[in-house]
Design goal:
Radius of gyration: 30 Å
Helix content: 40-55%
Shape: globular
Number of strands: 16
Amino acid sequence: MQAFVKDEMGARFIEVPQFDLGACYDDSKCFTPLLFVLTPGADPMSALFALAEEKGFGGKKLHAISLGQGQGDIAYAAINEAQDKGTWVCLQNCHLCISWMPTLERLCEELSPDRISESFRLWLTSEPSPHFPAFILQNGIKMTIEPPKGVRANLIGSYTKVVTEEFIEGIERSGEFKKLLFGLCFFHALVRERRKYGPLGWNMKYVFSGTDLKISMDQLRIFFENLESDADVPYAALRYLTGECNYGGRVTDDKDRRCLANMLTDFYDVIIQPDEYRFSPSGTYYAPPEGPLGSYAEYVNSLPYTEGPELFGLHDNANITCALGETNLLLNTVLSLQPRSGGGGGMSWDDQLAEVSADIEGRLPPAYDIELALIQFPVRYDEAMNTVLTQELQRFNNLTDLIKGMLKEVQRAIKGLVVMSGELETMGNSMVTGKVPGAWAKAAYPSRKPLGSWVLDLIARLKFLQDWFDALVPPNIFWISGFYFIQAFITGTLQNYARKRKLPIDSVVFDFKAMPSTADFATKPEDGAFCDGIFMEGCKWDEESMLLQESDPKVLYTDAPTFWFVPTAAEERAEFPHYLCPIYRTAERRGVLATTGHSSNFVINLTIPSDRPQNHWIKRGVAGLLSLSY
């Protein structure tokens, strides 16, 4: 698309213009508020402070106030004082002070060139908010700083707004300094752009701002200013400050922190110093040889407008993942606008809902007999799986009882026997558009499947437990994806081993053995458990070499082998070349931060044999999933 627009209309129509705050100031008057509409990652204050210095309004002539509780009176007094003295006032984060917005609107309505100094300016910053005064929106100058899209655009922003001649001058070892400075700017561009690949890029959506880059640049300069001519560059200290403090301070997921630290070693280490070093296999991206500031800007402008996944260390399949995410977002928006009344010969909303609800209700099996389960699977010291099973049966009973009750109620509402409540209407809207109702999802295990696949998956889980119930003994191979609460199964497996060996359970860990498909699964292992039902994303498992390998083109997910979860004492854990692969419950990977320090979506780390270094798979975003999104 970008190539087409460039060829037909010119390159300027696909290049994001650099923000010119000076031009906005020139268009303003003393009675015209200037409003920054905040976007993720944007930092207008640094540009405002720079403009204030340029126009002679630095220091005390610019009064910046961050609005919040108790700040309304201070802001009121500051505006009145600035009107008389002809200074500037900046009210930050107006969306956080909703109760004071009517007062701000009245102050702006009363601004008149006859009563205030000509040099007075009122600057405002706010996120989009329905409570922001309409008068200011209609009469003020509105500005927004959209984060640049693409590595090239990010680098152009860094080398036109952040890196200056004054900043790079006066460094004795300028060659090494400029290489690391470019590497830092490149790293900043990558961590911002990596989020477009969704969970393959980052588990959580982080907003890395220009402030992170500026602080890291200042620290780099301070180190070089105090560095002796024959001393070694403290790369480890620089990486720690940048990766763990400045950028890492925003990262809440430990797997994202691991990825960020591995990415930083490609740009913030001694390996960047040789001119022949390249950032990616294509050879297009590298740190230019030492030269004036203009030579770096010239190189950046020569870069491609779009970059491939290989620059981020991702497989080419990541482009498909990115496109699927954008498509799903578009289709979900279209579905949300679907009318409730049928047109032409189509079914009405009521008819569709009645058909879907009756179909689901007819598929669900009867509830488990918990009393019988407690008799057949009593609490035993030597078999924790009995407790795991009975707890799972109760959880699924609670879920199916909720679903059946709501389905019966919505069918009665369609017939007019009861009132269609807001909860039932919301549930019906979800079902008609193929989504899992929120009340069901809240009561169920994590899943991102659409309604049809979700029901089939639920029935498969119920059958897995029913087969276990009927056999009166645990299965030889556990379908680990079928558990409602997987941690109970994992803990139960460790408990059985610890009690059998008379060891403290906190001293027992898992070894993981990938089993060939020809292995004998007719009998259970003496210790631990065989587990299947894991999918691999970002790689594939090779049955011949019994190692992780690159994904096949256009194949996003593959089946992982059956793993033997082998309990062992921590000091006896086997050592072999491996990738420490995180396992997540869903493809979203994102969850809330649990008391364990991990995401609530996280299950366990598997050690999977690999002949490649760990950082290769880390940058690939490789992970195991217990449930796909379809």
